[in-house]
Design goal:
With 251 residues, the protein is an alpha+beta fold. 45% of the residues lie in helices and 14% in strands. It has a six-stranded mixed sheet. α5 runs antiparallel to α7, α5 packs antiparallel against α10 and α9 crosses α10. The longest helix is centred in the last third of the chain and has 24 residues. The relative contact order is 0.16.
Length: 251
C-alpha cells in the first residue's frame, strides 16, 4: 500500500468529517472505493480511543479535543522536518514512515498520526507548536518545476540507457508526465479536494515520492547528472505536495 497516498486520503476524509461534509460511513466508503482498507487504530497516546479501534471511533475524540484539521507532512532524510518533536520511544515508528498526518487545533499541533503498509494507525504524542510553512511556492510554480524535472529525467533515461540503474530506469516517467497534464481528475481525490482540478498533479507528485522514498541519498546515484536530477525531482515532488496541500487546507 502506498502509505503517502493512504495518509493523504485518511487526512482528507477525517477533515471532511470534522467539518461536517462527510458522515463517518461516507468516510469509510471513500477509502474502500479507493481500494484502501479503513485504518485500524492500534496505538493511541493522546486521545484515549481504547485501541484497537476503528478510525471512525477516533473522530469523536478528535472533536472533543477541538481538532479542526489534519495536516499532511512528507518524510525523507533529505527533507527538512515539518513534524513536531515526538517522544524518544516513538521515533522508530516515525522513522519508518514516508508521510504522516499532524492533528492541529487552531494551527497548533496536537498529535502525529502514522499509518503503516497494513493500514494500522498509531497516534503519537508530540510537542504542541504552531505550524509555519517551510515552502511558500505557488501551485503553478511548483508544478512547472516538477514537470520540467520529469521531462529532464525522461530525457536522461533515454540518453544514458543502461548507464542508469535499472530500478531508476524503469520508473513511471511517462505516466508521471501524462498525469500532470491529465484532463480527468483522479477519482479517489476529486471529491475530497476543494480544488479538484489539482488531483492529477497531486497524484503524480505523491507517486514520485512513493517511488523515491527508498532512495535515501538520491544525489549519490550514478551517473552524477542523473543523481543530481533525482535529488531535484524528489524535492520538486515534495514542493508540489506542499503547495497543493496548502491550497486545499491540509498543509
Amino acid at each position: 500500500m502506498d502509505t503517502a497516498l493512504a495518509t493523504l486520503l485518511t487526512s482528507l476524509t477525517v477533515d471532511a468529517a470534522l467539518a461536517g461534509r462527510l458522515s463517518p460511513d461516507d468516510c469509510a466508503q471513500v477509502l474502500l472505493d479507493a481500494g484502501m482498507p479503513v485504518p485500524l487504530v492500534l496505538e493511541d497516546a493522546v486521545y484515549d480511543s481504547d485501541p484497537p479501534t476503528g478510525l471512525l471511533l477516533l473522530l469523536p475524540a478528535l472533536r472533543a479535543r477541538g481538532i479542526d484539521r489534519l495536516r499532511l507532512a512528507l518524510l525523507h532524510p533529505t527533507f527538512p522536518s515539518a513534524v513536531p518533536r515526538v517522544e524518544k520511544s516513538a521515533r522508530r515508528t516515525l522513522a519508518r514512515a514516508t508521510a504522516v498526518a499532524v492533528t492541529e487545533s487552531s494551527g497548533v499541533s496536537d498529535a502525529v498520526l502514522v499509518l503503516d503498509g497494513e493500514a494500522n494507525l498509531r497516534v503519537l504524542a508530540c510537542a504542541r507548536v504552531p505550524y509555519a510553512p517551510l515552502d511558500v511556492r505557488s501551485v503553478p510554480e511548483a508544478a512547472r518545476t516538477l514537470r520540467e524535472t520529469v521531462m529532464e529525467g525522461l530525457a536522461l533515461v533515454e540518453a544514458l540507457g543502461d548507464g542508469v540503474p535499472a530500478e531508476m530506469r524503469n520508473l513511471q516517467w511517462r505516466d508521471w508526465q501524462a498525469d500532470m497534464s491529465a484532463a480527468a481528475p483522479r477519482a479517489e481525490l476529486t471529491g475530497l479536494l476543494t480544488r479538484p482540478e489539482q488531483a492529477p498533479l497531486l497524484h503524480a507528485a505523491l507517486d514520485i515520492h512513493h517511488a523515491m522514498s527508498p532512495v535515501l541519498a538520491p544525489a549519490t546515484v550514478g551517473p552524477a547528472e542523473f543523481g543530481d536530477m533525482l535529488a531535484r525531482l524528489h524535492r520538486a515532488a515534495a514542493a508540489v505536495v506542499t503547495a497543493v496541500s496548502r491550497d486545499n487546507g491540509i498543509g
